[in-house]
Amino acid sequence: MARPEGQEWRVLDPVTATPLPFPGPGHGDDSPEIDRGQLRGLLLEALAPGTIRWGCSVTGVTSLGDGTWRLHLDDGTAEDADLVVGADGAWSRIRPALSDSEPGYTGVTFIETGFDDCDTRHPDFARMVGNGTLLAKAGSKILFAQRNSKGHIRVYFAFRAPQNWQGPADVEIGDTEAVRAHLLELFDGWHESLLYAVRHHDGGFINRPLFVLPAPHTWEHLPGITLLGDAAHLMPPVGLGANLAMLDGTDLAHALITESSIDDAVRAYESLMLPRSAKAAQGSAETLADLIPPTDS
């Protein structure tokens, strides 16, 4: 399922659509792409049946005072555990037990759309994107187009705007024609081969404002509870998030196997994860600022 060829990058001039040099990764097998859903399926299939209990959303967690914690579920029931790992994403219900920090808006919004069966139905756009990711950039506006498996291409239009940009723009995200008109105005002057993604995409548009946790995001160690992935270090989506989450899980699992107690394992894990995530979050913030500067230049 992995696609080494997906590492390919193409950068185009937004006005002429001519290729520009890109000093990034080329072909290779050091960082292959894989669709998120396929990766999740592989991981789920490796678990014994019943390991995951679906439909048990956690609403919060409270300490029982002896290093154990009580998980409160949305059906009114509760479960006690000697280790709680908050791996529940950007808006974690576990994080408040460790940290008062909440995600803040970066000032950058992505509008997502895409193409299905692109090679057959939209062959010219598919050839332009190539095997991996296409990027076109002008000032603080960017178009990303990323090839997924089975002929799907995911497209993002990125720009700086207030979080409530839809109000001043008099646009409802569910009104496809209104969003299309807004994007055509915002990306006015771009080459028609790039604007093809605005005019001829499949389906509607999805509003994705970018939120991040403070960098660094740290907390005082507490026995029996920790965080991993976006719950611990939500950062701009520049290709690190899922990889860091898997590395977090690997390090925590290794510590639980090798350390003499759960508390020692959590301490060992946090001593690796916290400085690593702080560095990655700072680097990701700098990358976002480089890609989409606060003001047009």
TrEMBL record:
The lineage of its organism: Bacteria, Bacillati, Actinomycetota, Actinomycetes, Kitasatosporales. One of its GO terms (molecular function) is FAD binding. Gene3D superfamilies: FAD/NAD(P)-binding domain. It comes from the Bacteria. It comes from Streptomyces alanosinicus. Keywords: FAD, Flavoprotein, Monooxygenase, Oxidoreductase. This is Monooxygenase. Residues 226-279 form the FAD-binding domain. InterPro entries: FAD-bd, FAD/NAD-bd_sf.
